[in-house]
Amino acid sequence: MNIKIPPPLIVVFLTTLVYLSPNFIVGFDLPFRIQLSLLLLFIGLSVIFIPVFQFIKSKTTINPQSFKNVNNLVSSGIFKISRNPMYLGMLIIIISSVVYYFNYFSVFTPFIFYFWINEFQIKREEKKLEEKFGPDYKKYRLKTRRWI
């Protein structure tokens, strides 16, 4: 299946659904919930923007929908820890909304995002990267985990 929805739109969609789901989980209060949520949001945004700057520096595209503009395999910096740090940052942002709103639906959103991104985005990207960079990408994939 070849579904092409930009990952940031999935994040916006899921966090909007969390916001619109009003049932706060009764009887469970997380201390420093707002502060923890803001910290996770800051971490998530940082984990997204650090690789964006690496892509810009490497003169390759950050657009996951346009593989024809991928011209460099970036495997240094944060990409030594994760092959998909931008998606990891998006997942952390979704988790921050879970902590902030903590309703019944929110608990499932990180799993929905994780499944969606793996199935409909990352697998397609990995196939294209392997076609474009061959053994270099295979070697990188063997030594660096998909998420963390």
Q: How would you characterize the overall build of this protein?
A:
There is one protein chain. The chain is an all-alpha fold. Helix content is 61%, strand content 0%. The chain contains four helices and no strands. The mean pLDDT is 91.
Helix and strand topology:
Layout: H1 7-20, H2 33-57, H3 85-101, H4 109-143
Round the Cα radius of gyration to an integer and report it: 17 Å
Strand residues, percent = under 5%
Order of helices and strands: HHHH
Helical proportion? 55-70%
Count the beta strands.
0
Query: What characteristic shape results from the CA principal axes?
Result: elongated
Estimate the mean pLDDT confidence: 91
Secondary structure category:
mainly alpha
Précis, in short:
This protein is an all-alpha fold and 148 residues long. It is 61% helix and 0% strand. The chain has helices spanning 7-20, 33-57, 85-101, 109-143.
Overview features:
mainly alpha; elongated
